[in-house]
Design brief:
- The protein is of the alpha+beta class.
- Helix content is 27%, strand content 22%.
- Helix 1 packs parallel to helix 3 (105-115).
- It is globular and about 70 Å long.
Length: 440
């Protein structure tokens, strides 16, 4: 049981992981860690866990529709559900009419919010994909309707999935990307936080404001005529059309339960010291550790699991059956092979999810940690100084959040999801013994 929150300054020496600069990396200035984990000692917060494919889309839309003054969003990308964003093509976009009738409910909810006077800010990554001639993209449409958009530039990649409504009245932290697959076909996990203590609300706002101010202002690449602008900025409400969750025979359907008076001891962010926090959490686990994760590709964290097993901690590990990136797939296989060689049991998630993209763990049956990042080096960075790619000691660094909750009701709900998906999955075996491909 962990009864303390480590608040030490990060002093680890950065380890260079020099590789080619990703196309989405637009960092030009050195990032210096500037925030410590935000602590709370009272059961002030209310927490509502939610999960894809069961209730994530309803949660996002309801939060946006409840906004009265402001919405702040982090999303790694903004994909159309109406085939207006094909990021494997030279350009993106649809006709104005098609984009206005976009089927992604979050898009229409954000347009409606902007039209009723809510200040909407959005930070996302720049994938260097222009709008096709004669078309309009989702980001173009949002911008022209008053949404203030920034391309992330603080570090290599913005990986957090986060929304704050009305300056902290409601805050969502999750694994959910803005794609149809993530909302409707994956297993994902998130929490709605309400009435968080002032220090944690300030923490979220401080990180967001820093990244917003460091970002690059978005502007459409095309110009539109007066008649086109009239159609684009038409303030007629666009009712969000929320699809019903698909019926999966035999699947476990999660519950959306509101839990009042929950202790949220700590909130952390990468790259501001959360690798050191994570290693401390693992080192201080005493009896049991349950992990439901998309992938483990960080060698240090893989080693820490082996060390926990050797000192008698009971490990329960459930990993995604599929991984999108073949590079990450093989790195994860290396870790799982190491764990398997240490007599650690690993199971894979059920076949009916496209990806099991959630990231959470339960420590000693008393503490739940929910992360927006994977167990990968870019999500648990080393050191406190992160220069742009041209520097010799550059690291591939993501922005992420971790929410730590201590409450038996939260433990029970997350443990039930893990147990039910564990039961419906199967045992991991080395890749060379599988009749599958890297992404099958």
């Amino acid at each position: 049981m962990i009864r303390f929150t480590v608040l030490l300054l990060c002093v680890a020496v950065a380890v260079a992981r020099k590789k080619s600069d990703p196309s989405y990396d637009h960092q030009t200035k050195t990032y210096y860690s500037f925030v410590e984990p935000a602590s709370c000692t009272t059961k002030a917060g209310h927490v509502t866990p939610y999960f894809s494919p069961d209730s994530s889309i309803e949660m996002y839309v309801s939060m946006i529709e409840s906004a009265q003054s402001s919405i702040d969003l982090f999303t790694p990308g903004f994909s159309s559900w109406s085939k207006c964003t094909h990021y494997d093509t030279p350009c993106v976009g649809c006709t104005i009419a098609a984009q206005r009738n976009e089927s992604f409910p979050v898009f229409s909810a954000l347009i409606n919010a902007a039209h009723r006077g809510v200040a909407v800010r959005l930070i996302t990554n720049n994938y260097n994909t222009p709008t096709c001639a004669g078309m309009i993209s989702p980001l173009d449409f949002l911008y022209l309707n008053g949404v203030d958009i920034r391309f992330y530039a603080s570090t290599t990649f913005m990986h957090a999935k986060y929304m704050m409504v009305d300056k902290g009245k409601k805050t969502s932290v999750s694994s959910v990307n803005f794609s149809y697959t993530s909302f409707m076909r994956n297993r994902e996990a998130g929490v709605l936080l309400e009435n968080t203590c002032a220090a944690q609300t300030y923490f979220f706002q401080k990180v967001y404001d820093y990244d917003f101010n460091a970002g690059v202002a978005y502007k459409p690449t095309l110009a539109y005529s007066a008649s086109e602008m009239k159609e684009i900025t038409d303030k007629t409400e666009i009712p969000p059309q929320i699809p019903s969750p698909r019926t999966i025979p035999g699947a476990y359907v999660t519950r959306q339960v509101h839990h009042p008076s929950v202790l949220v001891p700590t909130i952390m962010t990468n790259p501001d010291c959360d690798r050191e926090q994570m290693l401390s959490i693992l080192a201080n686990t005493t009896t049991s550790f349950q992990l439901m994760i998309y992938q483990i590709t960080d060698q240090g964290l893989c080693n820490a699991l082996v060390a926990m097993h050797k000192r008698g901690v009971k490990l329960t590990l459930l990993v995604s059956r599929r991984v999108f990136s073949s590079t990450d797939f093989y790195k994860a296989e290396d870790c799982y092979t190491q764990l398997n060689a240490s007599d650690i049991t690993i199971r894979r998630t059920p076949t009916y999810y496209t990806y099991s993209h959630q990231k959470f763990w339960i420590v000693d049956d008393e503490d739940v940690y929910l992360d927006t990042g994977n167990w990968s080096p870019s999500d648990f960075s080393t050191g406190t100084t992160f220069p742009p790619h041209k520097a010799a000691d550059w690291q591939d660094v993501n922005r992420d959040f971790i929410v730590h909750m201590r409450d038996s009701r939260i433990v029970d709900q997350f443990a039930e999801v893990l147990a039910q998906d564990w039961q419906r999955g199967d045992y991991w075996v080395p890749y060379h013994k599988k009749n599958a491909t890297a992404t099958a």
